[in-house]
Amino acid sequence: MVSKRFNKLPTKTKDLNSVSFDKILDTIKQNCTTKFDESVDLNFRINNKQKKNEVNLRTVVNLPGGTGKKTKVAVVCEEGKFQEAKDAKADIVGADDLIEKIKNGDLNFEKLICTPSMMIKLSKLGKVLGPKGLMPNPKLGTVTNDIPKAVSEAIAGQVEIRNDKDGNIGLSIGKKSFSDEKLLKNYLAVIEALEKEKSNLTIKGDLIKQAFVTSTMGVSYKIKLEKSF
């Protein structure tokens, strides 16, 4: 059943012409009519179907304005690095004991960071961590000896960019309560990250087919990208 609140939102926005992100942002905020601080979300449809293989895009972006939510970070490392991780404000720190908890299904965190030497043991838990998107990855900066940097970036506002099997990417870039300037900076950081990934991929045609912006309980609008990539 559609709520009275939703019925008051604009209709047929999918038929509107695409506009630049900065010009539609005020409308997105006006559509945030719930009592909670809604997220501002981006969705991209990528050119996923290629003749030789599908595109598997996976990277991270550090949002300069943060995400507006706390990320619970766990660190698997040697005992000698425990204090480094704790000083960096990691929520959970451990070695073999933490690996055993994870093995038993205790996944009380949103981001997992691991040192290279401990990754040998942790890699055996692919069936537990993989489906949740929690397996540390050197490309994402979550397999590293620089624990303080990895933890601080995860806490500050690092989000993952990853397409599903249908070529869709979805991520939040902040909250309605964020200033327009902060949301625009986060948006541009995502676009820059996608442009960088395009240069690393062997792909025929543009990477991004369509782009959309919406809020948690709002309606979607097409975004006009400043340039094709």
Give the key terms.
alpha/beta; Rossmann fold; four-stranded antiparallel sheet; three-stranded parallel sheet; 8 helices; 9 strands
State the gist of this model.
Helix content is 31%, strand content 21%. It has 229 residues and is an alpha/beta fold.
Itemize the secondary structure elements and their pairings.
Layout: H1 4-7, H2 21-30, E1 39-46, E2 58-62, E3 73-76, H3 82-87, E4 92-94, H4 96-103, E5 111-114, H5 116-122, H6 126-129, H7 147-157, E6 158-162, E7 168-175, H8 180-200, E8 208-215, E9 221-222
Parallel strand pairs: 3-4, 3-5
Antiparallel strand pairs: 1-7, 1-8, 2-6, 8-9
Q: Could you characterize what this model shows?
A:
The longest helix has 21 residues, at 180-200. This protein has helices spanning 4-7, 21-30, 82-87, 96-103, 116-122, 126-129, 147-157, 180-200, and strands at 39-46, 58-62, 73-76, 92-94, 111-114, 158-162, 168-175, 208-215, 221-222. The strands form three sheets. A four-stranded antiparallel sheet has the order 7-1-8-9. It folds into two domains: 12-57 and 163-222, Ribosomal protein L1/L10, rRNA-binding domain (Ribulose 1,5 Bisphosphate Carboxylase/Oxygenase, 2-Layer Sandwich), CATH 3.30.190; 73-157, Rossmann fold, CATH 3.40.50.790. With 229 residues, the chain is an alpha/beta fold. It is globular, with a radius of gyration of 19 Å.
Count of alpha and pi helical runs: 8
- Helix amount: 25-40%
CATH topology of the largest domain: Ribulose 1,5 Bisphosphate Carboxylase/Oxygenase
Strands across the major sheet, in which order? 7-1-8-9
Cα-to-Cα separation, first versus last residue: 40 Å
Name given to the CATH homologous superfamily of the largest domain? Ribosomal protein L1/L10, rRNA-binding domain
- Estimated structural class: alpha/beta
- The total count of strands amounts to 9
**What is the domain tally?**
2
